[in-house]
Amino acid sequence: MERFADEAVIEVFSGNGGNGLAAFRREKYVPMGGPSGGDGGRGGSVVFTVRRNLRTLAHLRYKHTYKAENGQDGGNAGRYGSNGADVVIPLPPGSLIRDAVTNELIRDFTGDEGDFVFLKGGNGGWGNIHFKTSVNQAPRKALPGKPGQTAKLKVELQIMADIGLVGFPNAGKSSLLDKFTNARPKIAAYPFTTKIPNLGVLTIGDRDIVIADIPGLIEGASGGAGLGIRFLKHISRTQALAFLIDLGDDNYLDAFDILLNELNSFSSDLPKKKRLIVGTKTDLLTDSAAPLTRLAELAAKYPSEEVMGISVFSGEGIKELSYSFLRLTEAPVSEDETEEDLEGEEL
Fold first, then answer.
1. Which runs of consecutive H residues, i.e. helices, occur in the chain?
2. Residue 225 and residue 272: Cα distance in Å, rounded?
3. Crossing angle (nearest 10°) for helices 252-266 and 290-301
4. Dist. CA 245–CA 260, nearest whole Å
5. What are the pLDDT digits (tens) for 71-96?
6. Reported pTM
7. Residue 134 φ/ψ region, left for φ over 0, alpha for ψ in the -120 to 50 degree band, beta for the rest
8. Of 208, 217, 258, which Cα lies nearest the Cα of 235?
9. Alpha carbon distance 203, 208 (integer Å)
10. What is the pLDDT of residues 219-245, one digit of tens each?
């Protein structure tokens, strides 16, 4: 099975501060030179930063330890030690860092927050130039640098998307993502083709809608069955859900209830999201009237839900579905931008 790196445990260390120096001026014509020991440099910090070009935590899979540099010791003639370099750890949007022991949430990286300094490096120690007084002209005292800090962290990824595609294996999620976007997911006529979440961007006018294709669920997924349980968390941040129902499957009338139950068993917040039901593969059944009949039966069973039918193969209902996605994500549309203006947009 193809691995999708969405969790990692790492240890991070900020740098120790450099030691201060106890030294004295020793020059030819200054026989009684005063203290000249410089301060130690500050240790480097542990810094997290969001990189939008990252999609997984694969770069944390094999490197589990991150150490910032120690500060340099102070030098003679009042020279300060150099500060240690920070260690910068890049993360994709949607990452969370938790204490690996207590599981306490430390930071949720939902967007472009800028750099987050997690552990500061230790302060450098003072050299003896700081301890000269009127009664102590030759202090031999200098301070050691402060130690750095350490932490063990659990890093998790919850992908950021506007629309999450939910459905049983082979319901047509990957085909729809491929039709809408340039994601080019793996597509084949057998279950569990999708083994990792795929992201794509649907562009309508000047609006980009990020769509996530989640690996197919099966009944019992919330209890650990199949491939879907591991990825259910990745739809927790979507604005809306599209439930894809294969109209060629004889269990099409039960599919939505089963899917909704699995989501609710995983998190009671998921069924509260805005959603629509999409009947797929309207072109595949041999009886040309059957898909339309099944779609009508599906809509009749759920009168309070928005139900649509599509065929990725023929293109039926695709444009209408794109506008529904636009409405679900509450995209701002100007007064002069109507569906007629968008008719020329090619999906």
1. 173-180, 252-266, 290-301, 318-328, 339-342
2. 23
3. 40
4. 12
5. 999 998 889 999 999 999 999 888 89
6. 0.67
7. alpha
8. 217
9. 5
10. 444 444 444 456 677 777 788 999 999
